[in-house]
Design a protein that fits this description.
Length: 260
């Protein structure tokens, strides 16, 4: 199921006004389960904190209108969609949401205990040595508070951080990686990539302003090259398994159009 994600205006009643909705992007519903829903979030849309325009507002409005079948949900007017975890505004991909408080608490325990497997696609600058195939790793320690492009490791006490990755494709100037997060520090993939000299494409916080301008002006590339591809909770019964099957089109385009 694909739902239109709208730029919604909010009435005084707190409801979304359908007549003023404008097409902005699309949300793909991947799967629903007992008290939860898995979607594919577009880049450039906040999960919350932007009432009427964020993912929670829009999915809630769609559910109340009956566009999503939430099995076991209470009355439509009382449906409330809740985030189980977060994706940054500029990150696209798999997002797990709950529509009952009990499910939110249950799923939150799995995240807190590190029992959730998460994989990402990252399109980064530069190339890697393909003569050494297989799983590679970044192990740069990171502080709790993320720094910017000049200090991605951050200030203060640093703790262990591990990001594993596999090379998928390379063009003359860019590389597509499959990322497996072992630890979950703030902006971990983006910070590790920058520390290794391979910043994520389109990264306004850790990448260079010059590279961002180049990609925008020459390729029309105007997104962060980071996509949540896979989320799995194998310990849950039945297991939660969410997959985004395709590479985002902007990332695919850059790989295909890049020339020596």
């Amino acid at each position: 199921m694909v739902l239109a994600i709208m730029n919604c205006n909010r009435l005084e009643t707190g409801r979304l006004e359908p007549d003023r909705l404008k097409m902005k992007n699309q949300i793909k519903v991947l799967k629903t389960g007992d008290g939860w829903i898995g979607i594919e979030k577009p880049c450039g849309i906040s999960v919350h904190n932007d009432p009427g325009k964020d993912v929670l507002s829009i999915v809630t409005a769609m559910a109340r209108r009956g566009d999503i079948d939430l099995q076991g949900a209470c009355a439509k007017e009382k449906i409330r969609i809740l985030p189980v975890h977060r994706l940054d505004k500029d990150v696209s991909g798999v997002l797990l949401l709950a529509f009952t408080p009990d499910t939110l608490r249950k799923l939150g325990v799995y995240f807190h205990q590190g029992l959730v497997q998460k994989k990402y696609l990252a399109l980064v600058h530069g190339n890697f040595d393909e003569s050494e195939p297989g799983l590679k790793a970044w192990n740069f320690p990171l502080s709790k508070n993320a720094g910017g492009r000049k200090n991605p490791a951050g200030n203060g006490k640093k703790v262990k951080a591990t990001t594993r990755f596999t090379l998928l494709r390379q063009s003359p100037h860019y590389t597509l990686l499959e990322i497996l997060l072992i630890t979950g520090r703030k902006h971990q993939i983006r910070r590790h990539a920058k520390l290794d000299g391979h910043p994520v494409t389109g990264d306004r916080r850790y990448g260079s302003k010059k590279s961002i301008a180049f990609l925008k002006n020459n390729y029309g590339y105007n997104r962060l090259g980071l996509h949540a591809k896979h989320l799995e909770i194998p310990e849950m019964a039945p297991p939660v398994l969410l997959d985004s099957e395709k590479i985002p089109p902007e990332m695919e385009m850059l790989l295909n159009q890049d020339r020596p």
